[in-house]
Amino acid sequence: MKPKISKDNRMWRSIWKYKALYLISIPSILYFLIFKYIPLGGSVIAFQEYNIFKGFSGSDWVGFAHFAEMFRHYDFLRILKNTVLIGLYDLIFAFPAPIILAILLNELRLVMFKRIVQTVVYMPHFLSWVVIAGMSVAILSPTTGILNQLLGWFGIDPFYFLGDNAYIRGVLVGSGIWRDTGYGTILYLAALAGINPELYEAAQIDGANRWKQTLKITLPALLPTIMILFLLHIGKFLDFGFERVWVFLNALNTENGEILDTYIYRSGLLSQQYSYTTAVGLFKSVVGLMLVMTGNFLSRKTTGESLY
Questions:
Q1: pLDDT tens digit sequence for 142-160
Q2: What is the crossing angle of helices 165-193 and 76-89, to 10°?
Q3: Residue 151, C-beta contacts closer than 8 angstroms, at least 6 positions apart
Q4: 34: Cβ–Cβ under 8 A, 6 or more apart, which residues?
């Protein structure tokens, strides 16, 4: 009869067995502790009337007053609506784009051409948002932009895309699709490379065309990857990105283009309302956490795939 091994002993044996892996993970753990978790302590100023001269310990506590002020603010609901709508558009249009592109790339049979196409679609990801905004201004200009020039050939009047509230959300989401779709295909292509080719050969023998093979083999094989990346995307639903929006904003499109990140910057750093904007940021983070937990729970129940 084998002697029973306690849970602590099993844990220490496992750590000793995989000591090399634990050692190389130490820098990453320290990085997250120092730069991600310790700064979370600063969120306490959301419950204070923070004074930089008094610090955390000397500032007065005000409870949830800043959260109440946030919901009473005349601009907050409009900005929250913008953030939710832009996040929703990004989820509907930007999230499926890498999946579709990866499936199309996977169908290319000429290897050299496939690599050239992959390189071309990856490149925009390495451009900064400032460069992309400059290119967008040049392309979308109502007088010299190539897009309005093309529309002019069909007798359509030019649009002032960056000077009209009606178009700014489309510009923000569209620029993100152009920049990140190619780079987002990397994980999907890796998942596609792991599919057993014999499945496609068997499907061909059974008379399945490429469309049916995609529906019956490719998409089910991609489903675990899609669900994991979808959950990660859900976690960033209200976190659209400050720089991505700020470079496109101007006085003519702020009404529909301003989001929580730009509002936090404008009210927090420019107007020095540190406690109030920390409350706004904390609200955004809590909503993101709740969305991830809800999505993770639903995914585990429906597909069996989850983050944890």
A1: 888 888 899 889 888 888 8
A2: 40
A3: 157, 158, 159
A4: none
Of 135, 138, 106, whose CA–CA distance to 123 is shortest? 135
Q: Is the pTM of this model over 0.90?
A: no
pLDDT at 248: 92
Rounded Cα gap, residues 42 and 73, in angstroms: 23
> How would DSSP label each residue in 178-229?
HHHHHHHHHHHHHHHHTS-HHHHHHHHHTT--HHHHIIIIIHHHHHHHHHHH
Secondary structure (H, E, C), 236-247 = CCCCCCHHHHHC
Residue found under tokens 């061909």: 204
**Residue 221, φ and ψ in degrees, nearest 5:** -70, -30
Cβ neighbours around 284 below 10 Å, total: 19
**N-to-C CA span, the chain:** 36
Q: Give the tens place of pLDDT for each residue, 25-42.
A: 999 999 999 998 998 888
